[in-house]
Amino acid sequence: MTDEFEQALHRALRKQDPAVDFSARVEARLDQSDGSPLPAAHLDSLRRRVLRSRWLPAALAACVIAGVGLVQVRQHVLDAARANQARHQLLQALSIASDNINAVRAAVAREENPNS
Q1: What is the dihedral sign for C-alpha 27, 29, 34, 36?
Q2: In whole angstroms, how far apart are CA 4 and each of 15, 16, 25?
Q3: What residues make up the domain containing 106?
Q4: Dist. CA 62–CA 53, nearest whole Å
Q5: How many domains is the chain built from?
Q6: Is residue 39 part of a domain?
Q7: Contact assessment for residue 50 and residue 56, using Cβ atoms and an 8 Å cutoff
Q8: Weakly modelled stretches of the chain, pLDDT under 70
Q9: Is 15 within the bounds of a domain?
C-alpha cells in the first residue's frame, strides 16, 4: 500500500465524537416511531441503493464463479467415475486374456511333451 492511500484510509476511519444533540435526536425519533415497519418509499429507496451498490456486482460474480466451480466439480466426479469404469473393464479384459494365454500355454506344453 502506498503512504497516501494509508493516510487517506486513516483519515476516513479516524474516531469521531457524535454530535452534541445526537442522543436527543435519537430519542426524539424513537418517540415518533410507532414500531411499524419501514414505509414503502423508504424500502424502495433502500432497494435502489442496494442495486446501485458496488457489492451487487461482486455478489453476482461470486455466484457465477461458484456455479462454474460446481459444474467443474461435477465434471471431475463424472470423469473419475468413467475412469474407474474403464479401469475395471481393462482389468477384466486382461484377466480374460491371461486365462486364454494360460490355456494356450498349457496346450502347447501338452503338444511338446505328450508323455507328461
Answers
A1: negative
A2: 19, 21, 36
A3: 3-31+55-112
A4: 15
A5: 1
A6: no
A7: yes
A8: 1, 33-40, 50-51, 116
A9: yes
Beta strands in 20-114 (DSSP E): none
Rounded Cα distance, 5 and 83, in Å = 52
- What are the angstrom distances between the C-alpha of 31 and each of 21, 49, 61? 15, 27, 42
Dihedral over Cα of 75, 78, 82, 88: its sign:
positive
pLDDT tens for 65-93 read 999 999 999 999 999 999 999 999 999 99
The reply to whether 37 falls in a domain is no
**42 inside domain:** no
pTM: 0.42
**Cα angle vertex 56, ends 14, 58, to 5°?**
80
Q: Which residues of 59-76 are buried (b: 16+ CB within 10 A; e: fewer)?
A: eeeeeeeeeeeeeeeeee
Q: Is 30 helix (H, G, I), strand (E, B) or coil?
A: helix
